[in-house]
Amino acid sequence: MELKKLGEEIVQNVGGIENIQGLTHCATRLRFNLIDDTKADKSKLEGLEKVVGVVNQGGQFQVIIGNEVKKVYQVIEQNFQLNSSVNESSKVDKSPIVKVLDTIAGIFVPIVPALTGAGMLKALLALLVMMKWVEASSQTYQILNFIGDAAFYFLPVLLANSAAKKFGCNQYVAITIGGILLHPTFTTLIQNARTNGTSLELFGLPVTLANYGSSVIPIILAVWFMSYVEPFADRVSPGAVRMFMSPLLTLLIIAPVTLIIIGPLGVFLGDGLGIIINILNTYASWLVPLLVGAFTPLLVMTGMHYGFIPLGINMLATTGFDTVSGPGMMVSNIAQGGAALAVAFRTKKLETKQLAISTGISAVAGITEPALYGVNLRYKKPLISAMIGGGIAGLFLGIMGVGRYAQVAPGLFALPSFFGGDSINNFIYAVISCGIAFVVSFVASLILGIEDKQEVEKKDSIDIKYSNDVLLAPVMGTVVDLKDVPDQVFSSGALGKGVAFEPIDGKIYSPVSGKISATFPSNHAIGIVSENGAEVLIHVGLDTVTLNGEGFKTYVTTNQAVSKGYLLLEVDLEVIKSHHLNPITMMVVTNSQEFKDVSVNNHGNVNQNDAIVRIESFE
């Protein structure tokens, strides 16, 4: 499926453009803020090619794509005008916890790439110094060091931008507030006051002598406050001068309040958080890495892992290293990869083996959602194995007091961020912890196996198929092996096992009794769910979606019950050929992995209603 078409299908199945309040993306997911989550069709989204899974968590409706998520996001952004505002009365109420998680994700996820790039640069620089390839006193070091420091020092500016988007403020005024906290004149005044033992005042009110570089909480509170001040400034500003009067009033109110009240409050909260973390590190250093290492998969499933991002960033800013989120999440991700790769080692199913290998490698590198939703959660016991491996590795990290010295994506490639401190031991312990996580989860997954009667795959116990289906030929024509179809999506088996036909008649009949699960505006394809749970897709022609329904006539609608031999479509084959398109027709079982076997029992020429495909269920 072309990315443009995929983007259109995704937007359509989340309830249309009018149901989208906002859209962001992370490394693997499109993250929709929907006005009404109930309008989204999860089953249809999960049936789309390139969609690994769909979850609704943390106040966001998330479509898991994988490595191509950025391209899909760009396609949607280019082809749709996303809503910048919505009627408040149309929003669906969300719980306070969901709102908090949604806010944290919306503020921190967009800035992660900048922090990751800068963090890896800092880690690389630490390695170069340790290897004595760069002198810490050299100008090269100083320049590279401030390049790596920039994203962290100007963190209030980055957060101002993403917070403004989340709170619905003017981004540029918010960025200005972030700049005020870091302005050289302001920082010089603070330094001079500290040096001379004097105070700093604004309108006779004391300004706290705080350093806001790399701070997190003050700017978020300031922009949140601005979300209330800005509408007020708009209301009281006369229309003729509102263009400059509103931002002027906003700055005159926000800046002093931030410097005198909000900023110090944010610093106090940040310092308090740091004290709590230091107490944990002093008296129970093993506890947090153990819990994070073991339970990160569950946190990811609920979206609560985003709550650890500001904790880790705040600790980096206040202490120079992070023991809260980075170490535990790193070994958790590697454990996910180990558990998934064990599934690949154990399974005899080629499709599952390929999926487990690709997602397992991605998880080790730090991208866990495909492994979590596609393999480990699906078969349950590998998820337990990953939690065991992550927990044991996290315990080791905590006992050894391992910390991360830069903000990077947690995974094997995060290891350079553990260079720091007075010796190389921190890095060595981090490497050992990765080995523990992988080996323990891999072995545990081999021992526990896959939750299935015959150690083969199916989604879960409620999805076991106990009856067999026989699919009839939906069209008169010549049978073609699916692997010979000149379209990689079908020939590779990515959509499932099945068969193809060179049609000689344009009438398409139902191959099985069941219910119509999907129709398309272009009428070129139909989905059917059989009475025994087989999900059958009939796709007429290659690239025939471009005809926009020309030459197609449908006789069914979604959710309509049909019996074997029921006329579904009529297709004018000559119209397809006149557009230089191939009329080859595919019939695939898209949930083939839920069955013991899907086999083609007929070859050569077939008539409509000839038995063609046998679906063998687990006994």
TrEMBL record:
Xref: PANTHER family: PHOSPHOTRANSFERASE SYSTEM TRANSPORT PROTEIN, PTS SYSTEM ARBUTIN-, CELLOBIOSE-, AND SALICIN-SPECIFIC EIIBC COMPONENT-RELATED
Pfam families assigned: PTS_EIIA_1 (PF00358), PTS_EIIB (PF00367), PTS_EIIC (PF02378)
Recorded superkingdom: Bacteria
Keyword field: Cell membrane, Kinase, Membrane, Phosphotransferase system, Sugar transport, Transferase, Transmembrane, Transmembrane helix, Transport
Catalyzed reactions per annotation: N(pros)-phospho-L-histidyl-[protein](out) + sucrose = sucrose 6(G)-phosphate(in) + L-histidyl-[protein]
Membrane spanning residue stretches: 104-129, 141-160, 172-190, 210-229, 249-269, 275-300, 383-407, 427-450
Gene Ontology biological-process entries: phosphoenolpyruvate-dependent sugar phosphotransferase system; trehalose transport
One GO cellular component term: plasma membrane
Active site per the UniProt annotation: C26 (phosphocysteine intermediate)
GO terms assigned for molecular function: kinase activity; protein-N(PI)-phosphohistidine-sugar phosphotransferase activity; protein-phosphocysteine-trehalose phosphotransferase system transporter activity
Membrane topology category: Multi-pass membrane protein
Subcellular location: Cell membrane
Record-annotated PTS EIIC type-1 domain positions: 102-460
EC code: 2.7.1.211
Function: The phosphoenolpyruvate-dependent sugar phosphotransferase system (sugar PTS), a major carbohydrate active transport system, catalyzes the phosphorylation of incoming sugar substrates concomitantly with their translocation across the cell membrane. This system is involved in sucrose transport.
Keyword Kinase: yes
UniProt-listed InterPro entries: Dup_hybrid_motif, Glu_permease_IIB, PTrfase_EIIB_Cys, PTS_EIIA_1_perm, PTS_EIIC, PTS_EIIC_1, PTS_IIABC_b_glu, PTS_IIB_1
Domain PTS EIIA type-1: 487-591
Name of the protein: PTS system sucrose-specific EIIBCA component
Signal peptide (UniProt feature, chain positions): none
Domain PTS EIIB type-1: 4-86
